[in-house]
Amino acid sequence: MTQSNDLFSHRPTFSQNFANKKSSGYLDPSIWSIIVGPAQNSNNEAQYYTDGISNLRIENGALRLIATHEAQAGGYQYSSARIETKDKKSFLYGRIDVTAKLPKGVGTWPAIWLLPANDKYADLSSPDDLMRYKNGGEIDIVEAVGFEPNVVYGVAHTLSDTTDHPDGTGSYNAVKVPGNDSEFKTYSLLWTPDNMTFLVDGQSFFTYSKKTGADYKTWPFDQPFYMIINLAIGGTWGGMDISHFPNGIDDQSLPASLDIQSIYYYPYIGSSTKK
């Protein structure tokens, strides 16, 4: 059941509409940072992130994060893009709508996700994204892997709620979304002080709720989070299909892109009509 619209403002306080931007336009540097270098985690991803127009550009009414098969610094054979709002824009409760078209091809690993802005609970000493969310939490609004075509995941990563996630860090659900790599779909997070609901085109497919007496180990989601959008290649999950490709990556499917049409954030206001 989708949460009542009374819980969220009908007017966005943050928006990025790339459909209205001219091709060759630039990301707003007051909102977005473009990450350059290898992935800072233990996923063993194969890409090197760049800020070049071959990997990140606005065209045809979308922001495009493009993965390519080309030699990079440090011996990397793939390049791609990652952007984030860290230290610039954060979100605490509310509705986030991201309209996106996901990439096609074995080895692609796109994600639109959130990490703690101020690390209220997380391990400040760790540069590894995966270790930081062990305490501070992670919210995957949408995540997908190319070897599972037209399937998307919504995930609430936590330290102790390890009931059903394969890596033992939270809860998730997956849903079939036909055409998600050929058409734009809207992926939404409805986030309140008590639960998070994940949707595709307005249809709920996963809800994660705060348990009675919960602490940060199962509900670290009471603090601001910043947004990350990236397209990884290969790695521990994205590159799992080694039965068909030695490194889990179909080089013939590249270049492949994660296209973002728009992002809207509607603040949480509670319900003035709740009975």
Your description of this structure?
With 275 residues, the protein is mainly beta. It has a single domain, classed as Jelly Rolls (Sandwich), CATH 2.60.120.200. It has helices at residues 129-136, 235-238; strands spanning 14-17, 33-34, 37-38, 47-49, 56-59, 62-69, 78-80, 82-84, 90-91, 94-101, 108-116, 138-143, 151-157, 170-176, 185-191, 195-200, 203-209, 225-233, 256-266. The chain is globular. The model has no long low-confidence stretch (mean pLDDT 90).
- Quaternary form: single chain
Mean pLDDT, to the nearest integer, reads 90
State the shape.
globular
Could you name the CATH class? Mainly Beta
Any guess at the CATH architecture? Sandwich
- Largest sheet, if any? 11 strands, mixed
How many strands appear in the DSSP assignment? 19
Which strand-content bin applies to the residues?
35-45%
Distance between the first and last residues' Cα: 17 Å
Radius of gyration: 18 Å
Share of helix, binned? under 10%
Order of helices and strands: EEEEEEEEEEEHEEEEEEEHE
**Domains, number:** 1
Any idea of the CATH topology? Jelly Rolls
The low-pLDDT segments are: none
Structural class: mainly beta
Count of individual helical segments: 2
